[in-house]
């Protein structure tokens, strides 16, 4: 089966610019996650969607980050304006659902963002 | 609150020797525990999980992990390491009584020396 697709693979921008990341989850996966992974740290959840509804966005910096999941399938994550501390790998993951045996996440290769 | 700790940033082991990557956790209820692996230039891949049942969980690529409730640990093990096992290993936990999502550890870089 096809995996989680993410693009772009790398992005370099200057601070105060905007950037967008795209994710296409595995077909049939209802739950989609965006994580931020800063070098030397574990992934931190930014936002979780169940179909096209937001389940958890408690750690999303809403003054600059936004995300949407179009028709419960593809998703985009946007940063506007970017700060130096946003430099990280942005990971998209999907799962069949949540809870117990559904809680197996499939990750994309990530987008490495460098803010200069 | 839930948390997970991986006390070693780096583990080196000789090929053919057994390997252990350590993980300890803290939850209020019962834990759901996971191990993921990240090879260079690849996304995180699921290795194994503990939800309930046997304390010894077997996963992909010959890896296994032992759930120890009294020590709140979920160490990853393999009897004989391969050079191709060199990767970043990340432990994750979720409290089954909480609506919170997975909390990931900071990862342990495993290097298997030929």
Give the C-alpha Rg of chain A.
Answer: 13 Å
- Identify the biggest protein-protein contact and residues per side: A-B, 24 and 25 residues
The parts of chain B where pLDDT drops under 50 for at least 5 residues are: none
Broad structural category of chain A? mainly beta
Mean pLDDT of chain B: 92
Strand content of chain A is over 45%
Number of strands of chain B: 12
- This entry's quaternary arrangement is heterodimer
Low-confidence stretches of chain A: none
First-to-last CA distance of chain B: 41 Å
Q: What does the overall shape of chain B look like?
A: globular
Helical amount of chain B: under 10%
The level of helicity of chain A is under 10%
What do you see in this structure?
The complex is a heterodimer of chains A (116) and B (114). Chain A is mainly β. Chain A is 0% helix and 48% strand. In chain A, strands 2, 4, 5, 6, 9, 10 and 11 form a seven-stranded mixed sheet that branches. A four-stranded antiparallel sheet of chain A has the order 1-3-8-7, with no helix packed on it. The model of chain A has no long low-confidence stretch (mean pLDDT 91). With 114 residues, chain B is mainly β. Chain B has strands at residues 3-5, 10-14, 19-21, 24-26, 31-38, 45-50, 56-58, 64-68, 73-78, 87-95, 103-104, 108-113. In chain B, strands 2, 5, 6, 10, 11 and 12 form a six-stranded mixed sheet that branches. In chain B, a hairpin with a 4-residue loop joins β8 and β9. Chain B is globular. Chain A binds chain B through residues 3-4, 33, 35, 40-45, 48, 56, 91, 93, 100-101, 103-110, and chain B through 4, 9, 32, 34, 36, 41-46, 49, 51, 90, 92, 94, 99-107.
């Amino acid at each position: 089966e096809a995996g989680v697709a993410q693009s772009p693979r790398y992005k370099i921008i200057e601070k105060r610019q905007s950037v967008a990341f795209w994710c296409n989850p595995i077909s049939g996966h209802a739950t989609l996650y965006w994580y931020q992974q800063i070098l030397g740290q574990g992934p931190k959840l930014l936002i979780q969607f169940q179909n096209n509804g937001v389940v958890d966005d408690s750690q999303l910096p809403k003054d600059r980050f936004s995300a949407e999941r179009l028709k419960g399938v593809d998703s985009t994550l946007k940063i506007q304006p970017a700060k130096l501390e946003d430099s990280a790998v942005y990971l998209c993951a999907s799962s069949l659902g949540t809870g117990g045996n559904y809680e197996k996440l499939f990750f994309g290769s990530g987008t490495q963002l460098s803010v200069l | 609150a839930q948390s997970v700790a991986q006390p070693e940033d780096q583990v080196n082991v000789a090929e053919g020797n057994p390997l252990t990557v350590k993980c300890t956790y803290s939850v209020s209820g019962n834990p759901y525990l996971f191990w993921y692996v990240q090879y260079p230039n690849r996304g995180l891949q699921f290795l194994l999980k503990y939800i309930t049942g046997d304390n010894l969980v077997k996963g992909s690529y010959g890896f296994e992990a032992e759930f120890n409730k009294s020590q709140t640990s979920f160490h990853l093990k393999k009897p004989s390491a391969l050079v191709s096992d060199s990767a970043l290993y990340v432990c994750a936990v979720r409290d089954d009584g909480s609506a919170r999502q997975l909390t990931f550890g900071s990862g342990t870089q495993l290097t298997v020396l030929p």
